[in-house]
Write a structure and sequence with these properties.
The complex is a heterodimer of chains A (about 325) and B (about 270).
Chain A (H helix, E strand, L loop, with lengths): L20 E12 L2 E12 L3 E5 L6 H8 L7 E6 L2 E2 L5 H7 L1 E3 L12 H8 L8 H5 L3 H18 L15 H13 L5 E5 L7 H16 L3 E5 L3 H7 L2 E6 L2 E6 L8 H8 L17 H19 L9 H7 L1
Parallel strand pairs in A: 3-8, 3-9, 6-7, 7-8
Antiparallel strand pairs in A: 1-2, 1-4, 4-5, 9-10
Chain B lengths: L7 H5 L2 H7 L5 E8 L8 E8 L4 E5 L6 H8 L5 E8 L2 E2 L5 H6 L2 E4 L11 H8 L7 H11 L1 H5 L10 H13 L5 E5 L7 H16 L3 E5 L3 H7 L2 E6 L2 E7 H6 L1 H8 L11
Parallel strand pairs in B: 3-8, 3-9, 6-7, 7-8
Antiparallel strand pairs in B: 1-2, 1-4, 4-5, 9-10
Helix pairs in contact in B: 5-8, 8-9
The chains are: A alpha/beta (about 325), B alpha/beta (about 270).
Protein backbone atom coordinates (compact mmCIF):
# COMPACT_ATOMS: atom_id res chain seq x y z
CA UNK A 1 0.00 0.00 0.00
CA UNK A 2 1.36 3.41 -0.86
CA UNK A 3 1.85 5.50 2.23
CA UNK A 4 0.38 8.52 0.56
CA UNK A 5 -2.48 8.19 -1.88
CA UNK A 6 -1.41 9.96 -5.07
CA UNK A 7 -5.05 10.22 -6.11
CA UNK A 8 -6.12 11.99 -2.94
CA UNK A 9 -5.73 15.44 -4.44
CA UNK A 10 -7.34 14.59 -7.78
CA UNK A 11 -10.70 16.26 -8.28
CA UNK A 12 -13.56 13.81 -8.82
CA UNK A 13 -14.76 14.88 -12.24
CA UNK A 14 -14.91 13.21 -15.68
CA UNK A 15 -11.71 13.44 -17.71
CA UNK A 16 -9.60 14.78 -14.88
CA UNK A 17 -5.79 14.56 -15.21
CA UNK A 18 -3.93 12.06 -12.99
CA UNK A 19 -0.53 12.65 -11.40
CA UNK A 20 1.06 9.60 -13.06
CA UNK A 21 -1.03 8.35 -15.97
CA UNK A 22 -0.01 5.08 -17.61
CA UNK A 23 -2.80 5.13 -20.22
CA UNK A 24 -4.27 8.25 -21.77
CA UNK A 25 -7.26 8.26 -24.14
CA UNK A 26 -8.38 11.16 -26.30
CA UNK A 27 -11.62 11.50 -28.26
CA UNK A 28 -12.06 7.76 -28.69
CA UNK A 29 -15.27 6.89 -30.50
CA UNK A 30 -16.81 3.71 -31.80
CA UNK A 31 -20.31 3.24 -33.11
CA UNK A 32 -22.26 0.21 -34.25
CA UNK A 33 -24.81 1.33 -36.81
CA UNK A 34 -26.70 4.14 -35.15
CA UNK A 35 -25.53 3.27 -31.66
CA UNK A 36 -22.68 5.32 -30.22
CA UNK A 37 -21.06 2.59 -28.13
CA UNK A 38 -18.01 4.55 -27.00
CA UNK A 39 -17.54 8.32 -26.96
CA UNK A 40 -14.76 9.10 -24.50
CA UNK A 41 -13.41 12.67 -24.63
CA UNK A 42 -10.48 12.21 -22.32
CA UNK A 43 -9.59 9.56 -19.79
CA UNK A 44 -6.42 8.85 -17.85
CA UNK A 45 -5.58 5.70 -15.93
CA UNK A 46 -3.30 6.10 -12.92
CA UNK A 47 -0.19 3.90 -12.81
CA UNK A 48 -0.06 1.32 -10.04
CA UNK A 49 -3.65 1.91 -9.00
CA UNK A 50 -6.75 -0.27 -9.17
CA UNK A 51 -9.29 1.50 -11.35
CA UNK A 52 -12.85 0.21 -11.35
CA UNK A 53 -14.96 0.74 -14.47
CA UNK A 54 -18.69 0.57 -13.85
CA UNK A 55 -21.85 1.45 -15.71
CA UNK A 56 -25.17 0.01 -16.82
CA UNK A 57 -25.35 -2.81 -19.35
CA UNK A 58 -24.57 -1.41 -22.77
CA UNK A 59 -22.59 1.56 -21.41
CA UNK A 60 -19.59 0.67 -23.61
CA UNK A 61 -17.27 -0.75 -20.96
CA UNK A 62 -16.45 -3.93 -22.82
CA UNK A 63 -16.21 -2.07 -26.13
CA UNK A 64 -13.68 0.28 -24.55
CA UNK A 65 -11.73 -2.76 -23.34
CA UNK A 66 -11.85 -4.21 -26.85
CA UNK A 67 -10.51 -1.00 -28.35
CA UNK A 68 -7.70 -0.60 -25.85
CA UNK A 69 -6.53 -4.17 -26.30
CA UNK A 70 -6.74 -4.29 -30.09
CA UNK A 71 -9.77 -6.57 -30.33
CA UNK A 72 -11.74 -3.83 -32.06
CA UNK A 73 -10.91 -0.70 -34.08
CA UNK A 74 -12.24 2.74 -33.18
CA UNK A 75 -13.93 5.14 -35.59
CA UNK A 76 -11.63 7.88 -34.35
CA UNK A 77 -9.44 8.89 -31.45
CA UNK A 78 -6.04 8.12 -30.03
CA UNK A 79 -4.59 6.57 -26.93
CA UNK A 80 -1.19 5.89 -25.49
CA UNK A 81 0.35 3.41 -23.11
CA UNK A 82 3.50 4.56 -21.30
CA UNK A 83 3.66 7.47 -23.70
CA UNK A 84 3.62 5.29 -26.84
CA UNK A 85 0.67 4.89 -29.12
CA UNK A 86 -1.13 1.56 -28.98
CA UNK A 87 -3.41 2.30 -31.89
CA UNK A 88 -3.84 -0.24 -34.64
CA UNK A 89 -1.84 -2.88 -32.84
CA UNK A 90 -3.09 -6.46 -33.01
CA UNK A 91 -4.16 -7.97 -29.68
CA UNK A 92 -1.05 -10.14 -29.31
CA UNK A 93 1.21 -7.10 -29.83
CA UNK A 94 -0.73 -5.14 -27.23
CA UNK A 95 -0.26 -8.08 -24.89
CA UNK A 96 3.49 -8.13 -25.59
CA UNK A 97 3.70 -4.48 -24.63
CA UNK A 98 2.28 -5.51 -21.28
CA UNK A 99 -1.47 -4.87 -21.50
CA UNK A 100 -3.33 -8.10 -20.94
CA UNK A 101 -7.04 -8.66 -20.56
CA UNK A 102 -9.55 -11.27 -19.53
CA UNK A 103 -13.00 -11.81 -20.96
CA UNK A 104 -16.44 -11.57 -19.48
CA UNK A 105 -17.42 -14.83 -21.17
CA UNK A 106 -14.41 -16.93 -20.44
CA UNK A 107 -12.32 -18.22 -23.30
CA UNK A 108 -10.71 -21.31 -21.86
CA UNK A 109 -9.72 -24.05 -24.29
CA UNK A 110 -12.19 -26.65 -23.09
CA UNK A 111 -10.42 -29.72 -24.44
CA UNK A 112 -7.04 -28.89 -22.97
CA UNK A 113 -6.21 -29.49 -19.36
CA UNK A 114 -6.14 -26.59 -16.95
CA UNK A 115 -2.36 -26.81 -16.77
CA UNK A 116 -2.01 -26.77 -20.57
CA UNK A 117 -4.26 -23.74 -20.74
CA UNK A 118 -1.89 -22.05 -18.35
CA UNK A 119 1.23 -23.05 -20.26
CA UNK A 120 -0.26 -21.62 -23.45
CA UNK A 121 -0.35 -18.25 -21.77
CA UNK A 122 3.42 -18.10 -21.29
CA UNK A 123 5.13 -15.58 -23.53
CA UNK A 124 8.61 -15.51 -24.97
CA UNK A 125 8.50 -19.18 -25.89
CA UNK A 126 11.45 -19.82 -28.13
CA UNK A 127 9.42 -22.23 -30.25
CA UNK A 128 7.63 -19.20 -31.69
CA UNK A 129 10.53 -18.57 -34.07
CA UNK A 130 11.86 -21.03 -36.62
CA UNK A 131 15.41 -21.21 -35.33
CA UNK A 132 14.22 -21.18 -31.78
CA UNK A 133 12.06 -24.19 -32.52
CA UNK A 134 15.14 -26.07 -33.75
CA UNK A 135 17.62 -25.08 -31.06
CA UNK A 136 15.91 -24.90 -27.72
CA UNK A 137 16.44 -26.63 -24.47
CA UNK A 138 12.75 -27.58 -24.50
CA UNK A 139 12.85 -29.33 -21.22
CA UNK A 140 14.14 -26.34 -19.31
CA UNK A 141 11.70 -23.87 -20.81
CA UNK A 142 8.80 -26.21 -20.32
CA UNK A 143 9.81 -26.85 -16.77
CA UNK A 144 10.01 -23.17 -15.92
CA UNK A 145 6.62 -22.51 -17.49
CA UNK A 146 5.06 -25.46 -15.74
CA UNK A 147 6.45 -24.39 -12.41
CA UNK A 148 5.13 -20.89 -12.86
CA UNK A 149 1.78 -22.25 -13.96
CA UNK A 150 1.47 -24.49 -10.92
CA UNK A 151 2.42 -21.63 -8.63
CA UNK A 152 -0.30 -19.43 -10.09
CA UNK A 153 -2.85 -22.24 -9.99
CA UNK A 154 -2.10 -22.76 -6.33
CA UNK A 155 -2.54 -19.05 -5.73
CA UNK A 156 -6.00 -19.24 -7.28
CA UNK A 157 -6.79 -22.55 -5.56
CA UNK A 158 -7.02 -24.42 -8.82
CA UNK A 159 -4.03 -26.69 -8.21
CA UNK A 160 -6.27 -29.69 -7.54
CA UNK A 161 -7.81 -29.18 -10.98
CA UNK A 162 -4.53 -28.90 -12.90
CA UNK A 163 -5.00 -32.15 -14.80
CA UNK A 164 -8.73 -31.82 -15.42
CA UNK A 165 -10.04 -30.60 -18.76
CA UNK A 166 -10.78 -26.89 -18.65
CA UNK A 167 -14.22 -27.72 -20.03
CA UNK A 168 -15.12 -29.51 -16.80
CA UNK A 169 -14.62 -26.42 -14.66
CA UNK A 170 -17.58 -24.47 -13.30
CA UNK A 171 -18.18 -20.94 -14.52
CA UNK A 172 -16.50 -19.39 -11.51
CA UNK A 173 -13.49 -21.66 -11.76
CA UNK A 174 -13.06 -20.67 -15.39
CA UNK A 175 -12.89 -17.06 -14.30
CA UNK A 176 -10.07 -17.94 -11.98
CA UNK A 177 -8.27 -19.86 -14.69
CA UNK A 178 -8.54 -16.94 -17.05
CA UNK A 179 -7.09 -14.54 -14.53
CA UNK A 180 -4.29 -16.93 -13.68
CA UNK A 181 -3.52 -17.45 -17.35
CA UNK A 182 -3.31 -13.72 -17.97
CA UNK A 183 -0.71 -13.51 -15.21
CA UNK A 184 1.47 -16.01 -17.10
CA UNK A 185 2.47 -13.11 -19.36
CA UNK A 186 3.80 -10.93 -16.51
CA UNK A 187 1.66 -7.97 -17.54
CA UNK A 188 2.14 -4.32 -16.61
CA UNK A 189 -1.56 -3.56 -16.92
CA UNK A 190 -4.22 -6.18 -16.21
CA UNK A 191 -7.65 -5.46 -17.66
CA UNK A 192 -10.28 -7.67 -16.10
CA UNK A 193 -13.75 -7.83 -17.62
CA UNK A 194 -16.17 -8.76 -14.85
CA UNK A 195 -13.72 -11.02 -13.03
CA UNK A 196 -16.04 -11.65 -10.10
CA UNK A 197 -19.26 -12.33 -12.02
CA UNK A 198 -20.36 -15.85 -11.20
CA UNK A 199 -17.73 -16.23 -8.50
CA UNK A 200 -19.24 -16.84 -5.07
CA UNK A 201 -18.72 -14.24 -2.33
CA UNK A 202 -16.40 -16.34 -0.17
CA UNK A 203 -14.05 -16.91 -3.09
CA UNK A 204 -14.48 -13.33 -4.19
CA UNK A 205 -12.72 -12.26 -1.05
CA UNK A 206 -9.64 -14.30 -1.77
CA UNK A 207 -9.71 -13.04 -5.36
CA UNK A 208 -9.84 -9.51 -4.04
CA UNK A 209 -6.80 -10.31 -1.98
CA UNK A 210 -4.98 -11.37 -5.16
CA UNK A 211 -5.91 -8.21 -6.98
CA UNK A 212 -4.65 -6.15 -4.05
CA UNK A 213 -1.40 -8.08 -4.02
CA UNK A 214 -1.00 -7.38 -7.75
CA UNK A 215 -1.27 -3.71 -6.99
CA UNK A 216 1.20 -4.04 -4.18
CA UNK A 217 3.57 -5.64 -6.68
CA UNK A 218 3.25 -2.47 -8.74
CA UNK A 219 0.80 -3.71 -11.36
CA UNK A 220 -1.89 -1.44 -12.77
CA UNK A 221 -5.35 -3.00 -12.73
CA UNK A 222 -8.43 -1.85 -14.64
CA UNK A 223 -11.54 -3.89 -14.06
CA UNK A 224 -15.20 -3.90 -14.98
CA UNK A 225 -17.46 -4.99 -12.18
CA UNK A 226 -21.09 -4.82 -11.12
CA UNK A 227 -20.66 -5.76 -7.49
CA UNK A 228 -20.48 -2.51 -5.57
CA UNK A 229 -19.07 -4.20 -2.49
CA UNK A 230 -16.14 -5.33 -4.60
CA UNK A 231 -15.77 -1.89 -6.15
CA UNK A 232 -15.71 -0.20 -2.76
CA UNK A 233 -13.29 -2.72 -1.35
CA UNK A 234 -10.49 -2.65 -3.88
CA UNK A 235 -10.76 0.34 -6.17
CA UNK A 236 -8.51 3.33 -5.66
CA UNK A 237 -10.45 5.17 -8.31
CA UNK A 238 -13.72 4.53 -10.13
CA UNK A 239 -14.76 5.56 -13.62
CA UNK A 240 -18.47 5.49 -14.40
CA UNK A 241 -19.66 5.11 -17.99
CA UNK A 242 -23.16 5.45 -19.39
CA UNK A 243 -24.10 5.40 -23.06
CA UNK A 244 -20.49 5.39 -24.17
CA UNK A 245 -19.45 8.44 -22.16
CA UNK A 246 -17.60 8.88 -18.93
CA UNK A 247 -20.26 10.44 -16.72
CA UNK A 248 -18.35 10.45 -13.44
CA UNK A 249 -14.97 9.71 -11.91
CA UNK A 250 -13.81 9.67 -8.35
CA UNK A 251 -12.86 7.69 -5.28
CA UNK A 252 -15.28 4.84 -4.51
CA UNK A 253 -16.69 6.54 -1.40
CA UNK A 254 -17.98 9.41 -3.51
CA UNK A 255 -20.13 7.25 -5.78
CA UNK A 256 -23.28 6.58 -3.86
CA UNK A 257 -23.82 10.30 -3.33
CA UNK A 258 -23.29 11.16 -7.01
CA UNK A 259 -26.70 11.73 -8.54
CA UNK A 260 -25.64 10.85 -12.10
CA UNK A 261 -24.29 7.51 -10.87
CA UNK A 262 -27.36 6.69 -8.82
CA UNK A 263 -29.70 7.57 -11.69
CA UNK A 264 -27.81 5.76 -14.43
CA UNK A 265 -26.47 2.76 -12.60
CA UNK A 266 -27.02 2.09 -8.93
CA UNK A 267 -30.69 2.80 -8.71
CA UNK A 268 -32.16 4.58 -5.74
CA UNK A 269 -32.46 1.39 -3.71
CA UNK A 270 -28.99 -0.02 -4.09
CA UNK A 271 -28.15 0.34 -0.41
CA UNK A 272 -31.46 -0.89 0.94
CA UNK A 273 -32.73 -4.39 1.53
CA UNK A 274 -35.70 -5.54 -0.55
CA UNK A 275 -38.63 -6.02 1.79
CA UNK A 276 -41.91 -7.85 1.35
CA UNK A 277 -44.87 -8.67 3.58
CA UNK A 278 -46.00 -12.21 4.27
CA UNK A 279 -48.14 -12.16 1.12
CA UNK A 280 -45.14 -11.28 -0.98
CA UNK A 281 -46.19 -7.70 -1.61
CA UNK A 282 -43.44 -5.12 -1.51
CA UNK A 283 -43.50 -2.84 1.51
CA UNK A 284 -41.89 0.46 2.44
CA UNK A 285 -39.20 1.67 0.09
CA UNK A 286 -39.36 -1.54 -1.91
CA UNK A 287 -42.95 -0.65 -2.77
CA UNK A 288 -41.72 2.71 -4.03
CA UNK A 289 -39.11 0.97 -6.16
CA UNK A 290 -41.74 -1.28 -7.69
CA UNK A 291 -44.08 1.64 -8.40
CA UNK A 292 -41.20 3.53 -9.99
CA UNK A 293 -40.25 0.54 -12.16
CA UNK A 294 -43.77 0.22 -13.43
CA UNK A 295 -44.03 3.92 -14.15
CA UNK A 296 -40.83 3.88 -16.15
CA UNK A 297 -41.96 0.83 -18.09
CA UNK A 298 -45.21 2.52 -19.00
CA UNK A 299 -43.57 5.85 -19.79
CA UNK A 300 -41.04 4.16 -22.05
CA UNK A 301 -43.66 2.20 -23.83
CA UNK A 302 -46.22 4.96 -24.31
CA UNK A 303 -44.00 6.82 -26.76
CA UNK A 304 -43.24 5.62 -30.30
CA UNK A 305 -41.33 2.35 -30.20
CA UNK A 306 -37.63 3.08 -30.52
CA UNK A 307 -35.04 0.44 -31.45
CA UNK A 308 -33.04 0.75 -28.28
CA UNK A 309 -34.21 2.64 -25.25
CA UNK A 310 -32.57 0.79 -22.36
CA UNK A 311 -31.43 4.02 -20.76
CA UNK A 312 -33.68 6.68 -22.22
CA UNK A 313 -33.94 8.13 -18.74
CA UNK A 314 -30.39 9.39 -18.40
CA UNK A 315 -30.25 10.49 -22.00
CA UNK A 316 -32.95 12.99 -21.21
CA UNK A 317 -31.20 14.02 -18.08
CA UNK A 318 -27.90 14.85 -19.70
CA UNK A 319 -29.25 16.88 -22.59
CA UNK B 1 -26.67 -39.51 13.11
CA UNK B 2 -25.71 -37.14 15.86
CA UNK B 3 -27.34 -33.79 16.08
CA UNK B 4 -25.14 -32.42 18.81
CA UNK B 5 -23.67 -29.04 18.03
CA UNK B 6 -25.62 -28.55 14.83
CA UNK B 7 -27.35 -25.27 14.15
CA UNK B 8 -31.04 -25.35 13.15
CA UNK B 9 -30.04 -24.55 9.57
CA UNK B 10 -27.64 -27.49 9.52
CA UNK B 11 -30.22 -29.82 11.02
CA UNK B 12 -32.81 -28.78 8.47
CA UNK B 13 -30.36 -29.74 5.74
CA UNK B 14 -30.13 -33.38 6.85
CA UNK B 15 -31.94 -36.02 4.75
CA UNK B 16 -34.06 -37.07 7.75
CA UNK B 17 -35.39 -33.61 8.37
CA UNK B 18 -35.90 -33.10 4.64
CA UNK B 19 -38.10 -36.19 4.44
CA UNK B 20 -40.22 -34.97 7.34
CA UNK B 21 -40.67 -31.48 5.95
CA UNK B 22 -41.16 -32.42 2.31
CA UNK B 23 -44.40 -34.36 2.97
CA UNK B 24 -46.73 -31.87 1.30
CA UNK B 25 -44.30 -30.57 -1.30
CA UNK B 26 -45.34 -29.60 -4.81
CA UNK B 27 -41.95 -30.50 -6.24
CA UNK B 28 -39.24 -32.44 -4.46
CA UNK B 29 -35.84 -33.92 -5.19
CA UNK B 30 -34.54 -36.73 -2.97
CA UNK B 31 -30.93 -37.88 -2.87
CA UNK B 32 -30.08 -36.67 -6.34
CA UNK B 33 -26.79 -37.86 -7.78
CA UNK B 34 -25.88 -36.40 -11.17
CA UNK B 35 -22.98 -35.10 -13.22
CA UNK B 36 -21.74 -34.39 -16.71
CA UNK B 37 -18.67 -36.58 -17.15
CA UNK B 38 -19.04 -40.34 -16.57
CA UNK B 39 -17.68 -41.29 -13.18
CA UNK B 40 -17.65 -37.72 -11.84
CA UNK B 41 -20.66 -36.79 -9.72
CA UNK B 42 -21.33 -33.11 -9.24
CA UNK B 43 -24.39 -33.73 -7.09
CA UNK B 44 -23.66 -36.31 -4.44
CA UNK B 45 -27.07 -36.71 -2.82
CA UNK B 46 -29.04 -33.49 -2.97
CA UNK B 47 -32.42 -32.87 -1.39
CA UNK B 48 -34.80 -30.04 -2.10
CA UNK B 49 -38.49 -29.40 -1.85
CA UNK B 50 -40.79 -26.63 -2.93
CA UNK B 51 -44.22 -26.10 -1.45
CA UNK B 52 -47.13 -24.67 -3.37
CA UNK B 53 -46.77 -20.89 -3.55
CA UNK B 54 -43.22 -20.75 -2.23
CA UNK B 55 -40.21 -18.98 -3.64
CA UNK B 56 -37.04 -20.85 -2.78
CA UNK B 57 -33.43 -19.86 -3.42
CA UNK B 58 -30.32 -21.99 -3.96
CA UNK B 59 -26.98 -20.40 -3.15
CA UNK B 60 -23.48 -21.71 -2.59
CA UNK B 61 -19.90 -21.60 -3.85
CA UNK B 62 -18.77 -22.14 -7.43
CA UNK B 63 -18.95 -25.72 -8.50
CA UNK B 64 -21.28 -26.57 -5.60
CA UNK B 65 -23.79 -27.94 -8.10
CA UNK B 66 -26.45 -25.22 -7.96
CA UNK B 67 -27.13 -25.02 -11.69
CA UNK B 68 -26.58 -28.76 -11.99
CA UNK B 69 -29.35 -29.39 -9.48
CA UNK B 70 -31.73 -27.29 -11.54
CA UNK B 71 -30.72 -29.07 -14.75
CA UNK B 72 -31.11 -32.49 -13.13
CA UNK B 73 -34.59 -31.61 -11.94
CA UNK B 74 -35.54 -30.39 -15.40
CA UNK B 75 -34.29 -33.50 -17.17
CA UNK B 76 -31.43 -31.75 -18.94
CA UNK B 77 -28.81 -34.11 -17.55
CA UNK B 78 -29.22 -37.77 -16.59
CA UNK B 79 -29.97 -38.50 -12.95
CA UNK B 80 -27.75 -41.34 -11.71
CA UNK B 81 -29.55 -41.93 -8.47
CA UNK B 82 -32.37 -40.38 -6.48
CA UNK B 83 -35.84 -39.21 -7.49
CA UNK B 84 -37.63 -36.06 -8.59
CA UNK B 85 -41.36 -35.90 -7.89
CA UNK B 86 -43.98 -33.41 -8.98
CA UNK B 87 -46.93 -33.76 -6.63
CA UNK B 88 -47.24 -37.56 -6.58
CA UNK B 89 -45.82 -38.27 -10.01
CA UNK B 90 -42.29 -39.53 -10.45
CA UNK B 91 -40.68 -37.24 -13.05
CA UNK B 92 -37.09 -38.39 -12.58
CA UNK B 93 -35.21 -37.98 -15.87
CA UNK B 94 -38.38 -37.02 -17.70
CA UNK B 95 -37.53 -35.04 -20.81
CA UNK B 96 -37.73 -31.27 -20.67
CA UNK B 97 -40.47 -31.01 -23.29
CA UNK B 98 -42.60 -33.42 -21.26
CA UNK B 99 -42.01 -31.48 -18.05
CA UNK B 100 -43.12 -28.29 -19.74
CA UNK B 101 -46.51 -29.85 -20.45
CA UNK B 102 -46.74 -30.94 -16.82
CA UNK B 103 -46.34 -27.39 -15.60
CA UNK B 104 -42.63 -26.98 -14.98
CA UNK B 105 -40.88 -24.05 -16.64
CA UNK B 106 -37.14 -23.39 -16.87
CA UNK B 107 -35.16 -20.26 -17.71
CA UNK B 108 -31.49 -20.95 -18.53
CA UNK B 109 -28.74 -18.58 -17.50
CA UNK B 110 -27.28 -17.77 -20.92
CA UNK B 111 -28.57 -17.50 -24.46
CA UNK B 112 -32.12 -17.50 -23.20
CA UNK B 113 -33.74 -15.45 -25.97
CA UNK B 114 -33.80 -15.79 -29.76
CA UNK B 115 -32.12 -12.47 -30.63
CA UNK B 116 -33.33 -12.22 -34.22
CA UNK B 117 -36.95 -12.77 -33.21
CA UNK B 118 -39.30 -10.13 -31.82
CA UNK B 119 -40.58 -10.20 -28.26
CA UNK B 120 -43.88 -11.58 -29.50
CA UNK B 121 -42.19 -14.30 -31.54
CA UNK B 122 -40.03 -15.25 -28.60
CA UNK B 123 -43.09 -15.67 -26.44
CA UNK B 124 -44.76 -17.61 -29.22
CA UNK B 125 -41.89 -20.09 -29.11
CA UNK B 126 -42.70 -20.62 -25.47
CA UNK B 127 -46.17 -21.83 -26.29
CA UNK B 128 -45.10 -23.88 -29.30
CA UNK B 129 -46.80 -26.96 -27.84
CA UNK B 130 -50.15 -25.20 -27.38
CA UNK B 131 -50.35 -22.59 -30.13
CA UNK B 132 -54.05 -21.96 -29.60
CA UNK B 133 -53.52 -20.54 -26.16
CA UNK B 134 -51.10 -17.91 -27.43
CA UNK B 135 -53.45 -14.94 -27.38
CA UNK B 136 -54.77 -15.61 -23.91
CA UNK B 137 -51.36 -16.35 -22.42
CA UNK B 138 -49.72 -13.40 -24.10
CA UNK B 139 -52.25 -11.13 -22.45
CA UNK B 140 -51.61 -12.68 -19.06
CA UNK B 141 -47.84 -12.32 -19.39
CA UNK B 142 -48.15 -8.77 -20.71
CA UNK B 143 -50.21 -7.92 -17.66
CA UNK B 144 -47.35 -9.09 -15.47
CA UNK B 145 -44.69 -7.40 -17.62
CA UNK B 146 -46.36 -4.47 -19.44
CA UNK B 147 -43.20 -3.73 -21.39
CA UNK B 148 -43.45 -7.03 -23.25
CA UNK B 149 -46.91 -6.20 -24.51
CA UNK B 150 -46.13 -2.62 -25.42
CA UNK B 151 -43.03 -3.50 -27.38
CA UNK B 152 -44.14 -6.81 -28.79
CA UNK B 153 -42.77 -6.07 -32.28
CA UNK B 154 -39.28 -5.17 -31.04
CA UNK B 155 -36.48 -7.57 -31.87
CA UNK B 156 -34.92 -8.91 -28.70
CA UNK B 157 -31.37 -8.30 -29.97
CA UNK B 158 -31.90 -4.58 -29.34
CA UNK B 159 -33.03 -5.07 -25.74
CA UNK B 160 -30.91 -4.47 -22.67
CA UNK B 161 -29.80 -7.34 -20.45
CA UNK B 162 -32.59 -6.77 -17.96
CA UNK B 163 -35.22 -6.62 -20.66
CA UNK B 164 -33.98 -9.83 -22.24
CA UNK B 165 -34.23 -11.55 -18.89
CA UNK B 166 -37.83 -10.37 -18.77
CA UNK B 167 -38.49 -11.90 -22.19
CA UNK B 168 -36.93 -15.20 -21.11
CA UNK B 169 -39.07 -15.32 -17.99
CA UNK B 170 -42.14 -14.28 -19.96
CA UNK B 171 -41.56 -17.08 -22.43
CA UNK B 172 -41.33 -19.65 -19.67
CA UNK B 173 -44.60 -18.32 -18.25
CA UNK B 174 -46.43 -18.80 -21.55
CA UNK B 175 -47.11 -22.46 -20.75
CA UNK B 176 -48.79 -21.42 -17.52
CA UNK B 177 -46.38 -23.34 -15.33
CA UNK B 178 -47.06 -24.10 -11.69
CA UNK B 179 -43.31 -24.20 -11.03
CA UNK B 180 -40.64 -21.99 -12.53
CA UNK B 181 -36.93 -22.83 -12.32
CA UNK B 182 -34.64 -19.81 -12.76
CA UNK B 183 -30.89 -20.18 -13.28
CA UNK B 184 -29.08 -17.04 -12.04
CA UNK B 185 -31.57 -14.50 -13.38
CA UNK B 186 -29.50 -11.53 -12.15
CA UNK B 187 -26.13 -12.59 -13.56
CA UNK B 188 -24.25 -9.88 -15.40
CA UNK B 189 -26.75 -7.10 -14.70
CA UNK B 190 -26.12 -3.70 -13.15
CA UNK B 191 -27.25 -3.26 -9.51
CA UNK B 192 -30.34 -1.35 -10.60
CA UNK B 193 -31.39 -4.03 -13.08
CA UNK B 194 -30.63 -6.79 -10.58
CA UNK B 195 -33.02 -5.19 -8.13
CA UNK B 196 -35.64 -5.07 -10.86
CA UNK B 197 -35.12 -8.73 -11.72
CA UNK B 198 -35.55 -9.77 -8.08
CA UNK B 199 -38.70 -7.72 -7.79
CA UNK B 200 -40.01 -9.39 -10.94
CA UNK B 201 -39.29 -12.85 -9.56
CA UNK B 202 -41.29 -11.93 -6.50
CA UNK B 203 -44.07 -10.64 -8.71
CA UNK B 204 -44.20 -13.90 -10.67
CA UNK B 205 -44.40 -15.74 -7.37
CA UNK B 206 -47.17 -13.48 -6.10
CA UNK B 207 -49.09 -14.27 -9.29
CA UNK B 208 -49.32 -17.87 -8.08
CA UNK B 209 -46.25 -19.50 -9.61
CA UNK B 210 -43.97 -21.40 -7.25
CA UNK B 211 -40.36 -20.51 -7.94
CA UNK B 212 -36.93 -22.08 -7.44
CA UNK B 213 -34.04 -19.77 -8.24
CA UNK B 214 -30.31 -20.36 -8.31
CA UNK B 215 -28.50 -17.14 -7.52
CA UNK B 216 -25.00 -15.72 -7.22
CA UNK B 217 -26.31 -12.55 -5.58
CA UNK B 218 -26.94 -14.47 -2.36
CA UNK B 219 -27.90 -11.48 -0.26
CA UNK B 220 -30.64 -10.23 -2.57
CA UNK B 221 -31.79 -13.78 -3.23
CA UNK B 222 -32.36 -14.47 0.46
CA UNK B 223 -34.20 -11.17 0.78
CA UNK B 224 -36.85 -12.24 -1.74
CA UNK B 225 -36.98 -15.96 -0.92
CA UNK B 226 -39.21 -17.69 1.61
CA UNK B 227 -36.57 -20.34 2.15
CA UNK B 228 -33.02 -20.84 1.04
CA UNK B 229 -30.75 -23.81 0.41
CA UNK B 230 -26.99 -23.53 0.72
CA UNK B 231 -25.24 -26.19 -1.34
CA UNK B 232 -21.62 -27.12 -0.93
CA UNK B 233 -19.75 -29.78 -2.88
CA UNK B 234 -22.89 -31.31 -4.29
CA UNK B 235 -24.66 -31.64 -0.92
CA UNK B 236 -27.02 -29.66 1.24
CA UNK B 237 -25.08 -27.66 3.80
CA UNK B 238 -27.75 -25.39 5.30
CA UNK B 239 -31.47 -24.83 4.89
CA UNK B 240 -33.65 -22.27 6.57
CA UNK B 241 -35.83 -19.26 5.94
CA UNK B 242 -34.16 -16.52 3.95
CA UNK B 243 -33.97 -14.24 6.96
CA UNK B 244 -32.44 -16.83 9.27
CA UNK B 245 -29.78 -17.79 6.74
CA UNK B 246 -28.84 -14.16 6.26
CA UNK B 247 -28.09 -13.84 9.95
CA UNK B 248 -26.58 -17.31 10.53
CA UNK B 249 -22.95 -16.54 11.41
CA UNK B 250 -21.58 -19.64 9.70
CA UNK B 251 -23.49 -18.99 6.50
CA UNK B 252 -22.40 -15.37 6.50
CA UNK B 253 -18.78 -16.28 6.99
CA UNK B 254 -18.62 -19.15 4.53
CA UNK B 255 -21.06 -18.21 1.80
CA UNK B 256 -22.21 -14.63 1.98
CA UNK B 257 -18.80 -13.18 2.69
CA UNK B 258 -18.29 -10.48 5.24
CA UNK B 259 -18.13 -7.95 2.43
CA UNK B 260 -21.78 -8.51 1.72
CA UNK B 261 -23.90 -6.10 3.61
CA UNK B 262 -21.06 -3.72 4.32
CA UNK B 263 -22.57 -1.16 2.00
CA UNK B 264 -26.11 -1.70 3.13
CA UNK B 265 -27.93 0.47 5.56
CA UNK B 266 -28.71 -1.66 8.60
CA UNK B 267 -32.36 -1.78 9.46
Amino acid sequence: MPVEDPLASVRPEPGVAKPDAIMVMDAVTRSFGGLQAVDVDHLEIQRGAVTGLIGPNGAGKTTLFNLLTGFDRPDSGSWTFEGRSLERLAPHRVARRGVVRTFQLTKALAKLTVLDNMRLGATGQSGESFLGALFTAWGRQEKANTEKARELLARFRLDAKADDLAGSLSGGQRKLLEMARALMTDPIVMMLDEPMAGVNPALTQSLLGHVKSLRDDGMTVVFVEHDMDVIRDISDWVVVMAQGRVIAEGPPEALSSNKAVVDAYLGAHHDRALEFDSEGNPVGETAELVAEMENVELAETSGPPSPSVPAARDREERS
Amino acid sequence: MTSAGMTPAELAATPERHRELAEDALLRADGLVAGYVPGVDILTGCNLFLRQGEIVGIIGPNGAGKSTLLKAMFGLIPVRSGTVRLRDADITSAKAHVLVTKGVGYVPQNNNVFPSLTIEENLEMGVYLRPRTFGRRFEAVAELFPLLGQRRKTKTESLSGGERQMVAMGRALMMEPSVLLLDEPSAGLSPMLQDEVFVRCKKINAAGVSVIMVEQNARRCLQVCDRGYVLDQGRNAYTDTGNSLMTDPKVVELYLGTLAGSGETPR
